[in-house]
Amino acid sequence: MSGRTEGGAKDHCGEGCSFPKKAFVYALTLSPTPAFAHASDRGHVLLLPTGYYVAGGALAVAASFLVLALLPSDFPARFWRRRLPLFAFGDGARTTVSLMSFAGFAILVVAGLFGSRDPLSNPLPLAIWTLLWVGLVLLQGLLGNLWSWLNPWYGPWRVISSLFGKRPTWRPPPWLGCWPAVVLFFAFAWFELIDPAPDDPARLAWAAGLYWLLSFAAMLMFGYRDWSRRGEFLTVFLAMVARFALLERNEVERNEGGRLSLCWPGAKLSNAAPLSLSGIVFLLLALSSVSFDGLSKTFFWLGLFGHNPLEFPGRTAVIGIGTFGLVLTFVLLAAAFIFAIVLGQRLAGSPHPLGQAAGLLVWSIVPIALAYHVAHYLTALLVDGQYAVAALSDPFALGWNLFGTAAMQIETGVAAGAGSAWWLWNVQAGVIIAGHMLAVLVAHGLAWRLHPVPARAALSQFPLTVLMIAYTVFGLWLLATPAAG
Predict the structure, then answer these.
(1) How far apart are CA 479 and CA 42, in angstroms?
(2) Rg (CA), the chain
(3) Is 197:35 a contact under the CB 8 Å cutoff?
């Protein structure tokens, strides 16, 4: 987490200063301070030969499309059907794990209200912005739906339901879809990216506590299952991410337990139903918000509105343009996606409605969103994760050392220096390229469900592949371009 204060540092170089010197001065402005924005900020500028990486990434995505277009039509189905059974397990501990998670969440909220005011010493901002929003999303994409056990609502809901026999008062109407999750995710993204102080422990404690209470009330009213699938945005988002995990839980025995199997990424989409309009909007919003997080700090974006990145005026001064940019990024991505689907349908002469095609093919956006999410926040996870481990040992700043990590040495060199920058950027670039190649595979497999004729399936995917190549280039550029902390 790099320091981004309301004041920003002054540029002593003058207008004629060379870029390397400016970059050096800019790097000095990123020393940690008590006021921070959120966990996604980067602490250095990577000046690497990015043209080679961008070209290589675009060619890799394009080549994967060409290879898939030449493979047999049943290849995606045969590829995804393969499973390696691992072991069976029971589901009885889920309530206990969730209750423990709720207890930990309550302690974190109390620590946010009464603990240290420093976001790097208080465990609440570090737990939410780093461990949850970065670390858990990564694990969810690798290991499956851990959140279904770890979320802090299921256990309390089961206890209340058992004690009072609570039944849902109302059933959400079908037309509601997951629009509540869309609205709440936008509010979350706005708070994370636009709010002047999302890392302030007390401010974050009030926001997180209020959100838990409102969500719990909605679960008692509509039922845990219905609200978690329609309104609780974290559950909706993380369940979508888990579709691409390497581990799959057998849904047939969900109530009694389950069997864990090893599968290929995206295999759980082989029988996925098309998403509704609200589901399409939710996925596109998830990708566009993370993209805007990177874009909003670039010298390019700030320069459009006359802000000197080396004299950053603080988040309060850019609330208006930040809100505008968040909405604009979503609108542009949604327009480009719909245009690619419409054009692909026209090229293939498809009889399927636009809603069905878009609702099915939007699943291919998930690996892109996951890959960019991991790549964008990787630096924060490596550095702020260490701060989180230390802060959890002394949550109330009382001199405790519960886990023996309160005095641990924070190694920031993992994300600084020429050597670290080289491997870090290559890992980030590799994650983005791999995510887009997986997206091409997913889109190709889903296209065969719409167009069994090979030529039509390939034609329908061409515009979407072009969009993915463009987004690959855009994502790599965001990682490499100078940013204002």
Answers:
(1) 10
(2) 23
(3) yes
